[in-house]
Amino acid sequence: MSESTSSTPGTALGGEFTFPGTEVTVRRMGYGAMQLAGPGVYGPPRDPVAAVAVLRRAIEAGVNHIDTSDFYGPHFTNQIIREALHPYPDELVIVTKVGCVRPADGSWQMAKSPQELTEQVHGNLRNLGVEALDIVNMRMGGLEAPKDEPLEEQIATLVELKQQGLIKHIGLSHVTPWQLEQAQKMTEIVCIQNLYNLVQRHDDGFIDSLAQQGIAYVPYFPLGGFRPIQSSALDGIAAALGATPMQVALAWLLQRSPNILLIPGTSSVAHLEENLAAADLEIPVETMAELDALVRA
Fold first, then answer.
1. Average pLDDT of 155-174?
2. How many helices (H) and strands (E) does the chain have?
3. Is 221 exposed, middle or buried (0-12, 13-18, 19+ CB in 10 A)?
4. In order of start, what are the domains of the chain with their CATH numbers?
5. What's the pLDDT band for 226 if we cut at 50, 70, 90?
6. In the list 45, 144, 172, 199, which could disulfide-bond 51, CB 3.0-4.6 Å?
7. Is the pLDDT of residue 216 over 70?
């Protein structure tokens, strides 16, 4: 692992992590911008002023890792980020993803041809107002679980865009260990973004393998997403720790492995503050064992 990686509870926003093969360092508690879009992650936000306020408060609180995509909205989320934060702080790392589009009916459609990916990269550049994207995650699979489908054509496209100076680093989203191995034959992969949280833990072995390689693992839906985590056992543990159940779920992730980076999303400043406070919650070893047993079937 990088020497700057830390999993010590109580450090600022969960400590820091340096992406492999780079000088890019982020605090482990970041922010996911998905919820800044309208209902169903489609259309403009209900309250644009509040959306801008959340982003600015995140930066004030020390967050320097924002996860987004131009297909959130589509376009609205990146445009709000630009409105709120441009010109961007030097240490801010904006991670985006490609591989999907949102047509007029609001559906989610996979779009992974070289032409589609190139158009999406340029859309992210334009709406974020940058000349190069810090990290671009290639979103594979369909809308369900990852599958071992070939990804050489997609990675080759991103590598070409990287050679053009439009992308600085490449990551993967919604992938299997086999797909990571295939991608690594073509370029360095700095992060993996898959579904993972306290009760959905199919990637346990994958996380441990990535930790050995120093590769970041960024769980999407760290609080359950469209199916928020609900557990009477979790409620009891949270009460004993003087925290909310969602704070415990986030703190568990930070203590689960030092390569895990968090990107909980919200459109509320109050909820943002609650999420960030989870980085200061230290869960005792025996309580971690209790939490480890809470796996959703």
1. 98
2. 10, 11
3. buried
4. 20-231+260-266 (3.20.20.100)
5. low
6. 45
7. yes
Q: What is the pLDDT of residues 111-128, one digit of tens each?
A: 999 999 999 999 999 999
Using only the alpha carbons of the chain, give its radius of gyration: 18
Long-range contacts of 267-270 (CB under 8 A, 24+ apart): 267/35, 267/36, 267/45, 267/46, 267/47, 267/50, 267/51, 267/54, 268/50, 268/54, 269/50, 269/53, 269/54, 269/57
pLDDT at 2: 33
Burial 4-31 (b: 16+ CB within 10 A, else e): ebbbebeeebbbbbbbbeeebbbbbbbb
For residue 258, give Cα distances in angstroms to 45, 51, 171, 192, 280. Answer: 34, 30, 18, 14, 15
Question: What's the pTM?
Answer: 0.94
Q: Which residues are designated catalytic?
A: 72
- For CA atoms 246, 50, 38, 89, the dihedral sign is negative
251 pLDDT more than 90: yes
Share of the chain above pLDDT 90, in %: 90
- Per the rule left: phi > 0, alpha: psi between -120 and 50, beta: everything else, 62 is left
Which positions ≥6 away from 262 have C-beta within 8 Å?
A: 14, 28, 29, 30, 218, 219, 222, 250, 253, 254
Residue 12's pLDDT band, with cuts at 50, 70 and 90, is confident
Cis peptide before 177 (omega within 30 of 0): no
Amino acid at 103: P
**Cβ atoms of residues 162 and 186 within 8 Å:** no
Would you tell me how many other CB atoms lie within 10 Å of the CB of residue 188?
15
